[in-house]
Amino acid sequence: MSIEYYLLLIPLGFAVGTYGTLIGAGGGFILIPLLLFLYPTEDIRIITSISLAVIFCNAFSGTIAYGRMGRIDYKSGLLLAAATVPGAVVGVLTTDFLPRQLFNILLGVMMVGGALFIFISPVRRESKKKNPIHAGFSRRIVEKDGSEHRFAYNLPLGVGVSGITGYISSLFGIGGGIIHVPLLSRALHFPVHVATATSHFVLAIMALTATIVNIAGGEFQHGFWRTVCLSVGVLLGAQVGARLSNKIKGPWIIRALALALAIVGVRLIITV
User: Fold this and answer.
1) H-type helices in the chain, by residue range?
2) CB 40 within 8 A of CB 106
3) Does pLDDT of 245 surpass 90?
4) What pLDDT is attached to residue 43?
5) Could you tell me which residues are beta bridge partners of residue 137?
6) Residue 199 contacts residue 84 (beta carbons within 8 Å)
7) CB-based contacts of 122: which residues, under 8 Å, 6+ apart?
8) 138: which strand partners?
């Protein structure tokens, strides 16, 4: 492949990083289908290893940006991230057992299902209906601009689903944000902006774990330069996406996630 070809991956990474950080999904659900279309004969394990490494760079950059805003719930993030680690390791090791065609179908169905869940489930109105502090694990987050968020959630539920998320996201190389953001905002009652920021923090830890497993297995070296070019783009795009999140209301971030999931999922299914 020529140098020009690799350089074209940088703007692609920038777009993925911007949108992925904006909606807190890491961008893997966009990157994996793109890699599948760009490399139709490439081994699935190599494609997922590239995606997970790029997701780590995106999530790490986004975490820094959101951390400066004071939006990350670090305590909850560490607890949920710890639950994703075992699943992430197992997910990486079982990717080889999925034939590519089945991989595409399962990924597409999962994305469409996630989009339907987001569209059907009611939008939580944070300003009018406060989550009672006695309802579970109580949290108080104060952003740098003074905005205060008080909420509570079912910690065992969050930990349990996070373990499953770690497995699914590493198996498909999508990072898990498309599962975690709806989970945090809808099922666990996180304010949307706190959910997207905390999701990025969890993604960084989970994707790093999966990438270390891929490096140890020797898969990562086959996509090294593609990973570098895409990562340069996402590191820049993540900063832009975090800034844009200040200008877009929470419900629109969730709707954007659902729309993107539906489009990419249908595309994957019909191309099989």
Assistant:
1) 3-23, 28-38, 44-69, 74-94, 100-120, 155-172, 177-182, 192-217, 224-244, 250-270
2) no
3) no
4) 87
5) 153
6) no
7) none
8) 152
Task: Give Cα 135 to chain centroid, integer Å.
Answer: 27
Backbone angles phi, psi at 2, to 5 degrees: -80, 165
Which residue shows structure tokens 């996509």? 223
Q: What is the distance between the alpha carbons of residues 183 and 204, in angstroms, rounded to a whole number?
A: 17
Specify the pTM: 0.82
Tokens coding 117: 């869940």
**Is the C-alpha dihedral spanning 149, 253, 111, 91 positive or negative?**
negative
Cβ neighbourhood burial of 249 (10 Å; 0-12, 13-18, 19+): exposed
Measured in Å, how far apart are the chain's first and last C-alpha atoms? 26
Q: Would you state the structure tokens that stand for residue 15, as one six-digit string? A: 């777009």
> What pLDDT, on a 0 to 100 scale, did the predictor assign at position 89?
93
Round to whole Å and give the CA distance between 89 and 209: 7
pLDDT tens-digit map of 116-163: 876 776 544 444 445 454 457 889 999 998 999 999 999 999 999 899
CB contact set of 99 (below 8 Å; sequence gap of 6+)? none
The residue among 185, 112, 175 whose CA lies nearest residue 153 is 185
Task: Identify residue 131 by its one-letter amino acid code.
Answer: N
CB-neighbour burial class of residue 9 (10 A; exposed 0-12, middle 13-18, buried 19+)? buried
- Which of 69-78, 82-91, 104-113, 255-264 shows the lowest per-residue confidence on average (mean pLDDT)? 255-264
Taking each helix axis as running N to C, give the angle between helix 250-270 and helix 3-23, from 0 to 180 degrees, rounded to the nearest 10: 130
